[in-house]
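task queued by scheduler; priority normal; single chain, no ligands, no partner chains; default sampling; output format set to structure tokens
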Amino acid sequence: MPRQGKTEKTEDAARAARRARFGTLPERVRPQDTVETRPAIAPDPSRDTYSSDEWLVRYCL
């Protein structure tokens, strides 16, 4: 019988440790708090200008 008492105490301790660690859910995170929007780079006006010779540089050189 002494072994059963020791086993029960060990199981109770393990159960209490599991409940302390996993007994509650973590705090809820709102979807608004998970998204951040900002430009990746500063806009460069010269980048969006059209160059008629650009295709020559890209494909012929």
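post-processing summary
- The mean pLDDT is 81.
- The chain has two helices and no strands.
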